[in-house]
Amino acid sequence: MDRRTLLAVGPVLMNTAPALLKGATEKQGYSWAEIDKMLARGDVRGKLTRADLPTPALILDLDAFESNVDKMTKHARANNRALRPHGKTHKTPEIAKALIRAGAVGACAAKVSEAEVFAKNGVSGLLVTTAVIGKYKIERAVTLATAHRETIFSVDNAQNVRDLNDAAGAAKIKMNVMIDLLVGGRTGIKSGDPALGLAQLIASQPNLRLAGIQAYAGGASHTVGFEARKQASLAAMLPAVETRRMIEKAGIECKLLSGGSTGTYNIDSGIDGITELQPGSFMFMDVDYNRIGGQDGPVYRDFKNSLSVLTTVVSKPSDETAIVDGGLKAFSTDKPFPPQAKSIEGIGFSWGGDEHGRLNLAKASAAVNLGDRLEFIIPHCDPSVNLYDRMYCVRGDQVEAVWKVAARGMSQ
Ligand SMILES: Cc1ncc(COP(=O)(O)O)c(C=O)c1O
């Protein structure tokens, strides 16, 4: 089959089974050099299809992604909350900018190096959600704040507050800081008096401005069952709301209370005093989030699975076993469950080593053969995205754009 015939047949195959492409051989599609040239020119629209992509490849289904963005932005607007989605999930400036175009006030970044990449690529309204500790990182934070004055940095420690104040003073700037509250059992200062004390210290520093409170309840976000999740989020977030009241009562402005997640967005948006939501995974979703259950049943379907990894069957050792070219280096492996085949039911996946996945086809609902391409929903989106240089954005069978995961590896 030549390329022209394949293009004609491709959409038909995709309509029946969008995540399974049958039997590509080396005679079909573009050569590596041709694809690389197109990528370098950003010239893929109307030219590349899923069948052309070298695997394993990170795939973003644009229809599903746009539907997720639309749902979350509408929800925030309807509930009168700002939206500052977390960029640690996507690490991709194009996505941060798409979210801002849709109404987000900016983007969260987990680390200074991630924020630097976003800022360099035109993303404004950054909140760095992890404390900046040590001379080297403080120096980078001050440089970032000098160029992007609105950037906010999280703090949970008195010495760190003094260090930031000194560094900001030396650079002759005023830095915005947010108190990171301990509400999810990870980082942060305790709610109530300890946080009030830190707010008073910040207010006394000439080179710092208190922007508000950052409260991320990671434990609540993945609590299974909507009612249990609601109780967990209320228990975590109400002390944060009360702490904000205490700080304001003490005469210190504390404008923002930023928190929430994909699992709790529709719980936190109903809590008075939370001013903005910072969910991340909603735009992609993953197996982990599908498991937490929604208001209407055991599968969490508020958002669509827009992200997947496309693989190729590279070996078929027996009728009931196939090997794909996606293994430990193609998916994050931090969860106790494997990737999930997208369009064929009953496929079992187990790790086949660094480069391979082993498929058990005994109960597969369709035949799988050498050269077939299979898409998998990712167990955990954030660390998996961090494994890829680019994501291929598809609409149906066509690749519409290729976005650079520019902050990939920026974990400093
Ligand atoms: C500080 C902070 N805020 C928000 C989020 C977003 O959470 P989710 O991806 O569950 O929506 C995360 C995720 O780890 C986080 O660390």
Describe this structure in words.
The protein has 412 residues and is α/β, with parallel strands linked by helices. The protein has two domains: 3-62 and 302-404, Beta Barrel (Lyase, Ornithine Decarboxylase, Chain A, domain 1), CATH 2.40.37.20; 63-286, Alanine racemase (TIM Barrel). The chain is built from 13 helices and 18 strands. Strands 1, 2, 11, 12, 13, 14, 15, 16, 17 and 18 form a ten-stranded mixed sheet that branches. Helix 6 (135-147) packs across helix 7 and helix 8 (193-203) packs across helix 10 (226-249). The longest helix is centred in the middle third of the chain and has 24 residues, at 226-249. The protein is globular and about 70 Å long. Mean pLDDT is 93; it is low at 1-18. The structure holds pyridoxal-5'-phosphate.
CATH topology of the largest domain: TIM Barrel
Low-confidence stretches at least 5 residues in length (pLDDT < 50)? 1-18
**Number of alpha- plus pi-helical segments:** 13
**What structural class is derived from the secondary structure elements?**
alpha/beta
Roughly how many Å apart are the termini?
48 Å
Oligomeric organization of the protein chains: single chain
Number of strands: 18
Largest sheet: 10 strands, mixed
CATH superfamily of the largest domain: Alanine racemase
* Ligand identities: pyridoxal-5'-phosphate
Q: Please give the CATH class of the largest domain.
A: Alpha Beta
Radius of gyration: 23 Å
What's the architecture of the largest domain, going by CATH? Answer: Alpha-Beta Barrel
Percent range of helical residues: 25-40%
**Integer average pLDDT:** 93
Strand content: 15-25%
Shape: globular
Number of folding domains? 2
